[in-house]
Amino acid sequence: YLGVMPAYSAADDALITKLVTFYEHLKDSPAPSHQATVLLFDPRNGSLKAVLDGSVITAKRTAAVSAIATKLLMPAFAEVLCILGAGVQAYSHYEILTELFTFKEVRIWNRSKEKAEKFASSVHGPVRVCSSAQEAVVGADVIVTVTMAAEPILSGAWVKPGAHINAIGASRPDWRELDDELMKNCFLFVDSKEAALTESGDVILSGAEIFAELGEVLKGTKPALPEKTTVFKSLGLAIEDAVAAKFVYDAWSAAN
Residues of the signal sequence (predicted)? Predict the structure, then answer.
């Protein structure tokens, strides 16, 4: 799958296109499932200013948006963080969530226990490797799903009432990470309603009602509801890549 994601921000003086390849590797592969390149252009004349590592930008900006959602939607006394998946997005989410918030316990589960153990041994803090997704999820306050699952791996029956879930994987209309029970008994937040209703199998196949876009919460037109069970379904927006790429370019320019 080849995705082309163009965006322009007048406020940030940023014009970009991100090219991202998406391959489902059936066996362990040295190549990541997602690989991306960002092309940054001069909005005044269209000339190419920079070629940036889109994989790093994608990992960082996705986790940053999840962190915003977590700050707004997580329960007041969140102590347990659970991550389902052990790929690139698991690392970027772990880094930013443990930097911004204080958790007493971090748990991880992955289909390959070897990858989960590698994750736990390579990050800076203690992480408990769990033998099942259920073991990792039960009692968790913040849950992050960053898997390549095509069928639900997170059951609503396991989820603590009032927990917050950042759902990052299952970015196709026929793929799921979350089951119907969870989707229909949560308050659902998305980055884009239009995208969620055409791209997210979790939303489309469950028939779940979207409560708000994250931007509506930030603008104050919709409430955050941190006392409720909440799901943030992240699909990613090209404008996030534009702002992130310009930020990186400006920092590099200032240093050089």
Answer: none
